[in-house]
Amino acid sequence: MRNFQKVLAYLTSAEVQKELIKTGYIRAYAFENQYEFLAVLVEHFFETPERFKLEHPTIYGLMLELLQLNKITS
Question: Is 74 in a helix, a strand, or coil?
């Protein structure tokens, strides 16, 4: 739960949201609610991990923590 809160805290920044929408990588519908946003992030994390890591390294790192994959890849 704490890792989910870290992701949400980072993503509540209006500046971060603006940049995410601007890149076009994360569709605007993701911002409807926190659960939709998490679903979109997980989808991108597994479907296009290289692009996700390249375009949004901070969020990618937060997702590693959230999904507890940082323990496997470290």
Answer: coil
Would you mind telling me the total number of residues written for the chain in this entry?
Answer: 74
Task: Kindly give, in sequence order, each residue whose CB lies less than 8 Å from that of residue 29, ignoring residues fewer than 6 positions away.
Answer: 36, 40
CA–CA separation, 4 and 66 (whole Å): 6
| pLDDT digit string, tens, across residues 12-38 | 888 888 888 888 888 878 888 888 888
Q: DSSP labels for 4-67?
A: HHHHHHHHT-HHHHHHHHHHSSS-GGGGG-HHHHHHHHHHHHHHSHHHHHHH-HHHHHHHHHHT
In this predicted structure, the answer to whether residue 48 has a pLDDT above a threshold of 90 is yes
pTM above 0.70, yes or no: yes
CA distance 54 to 2: 25
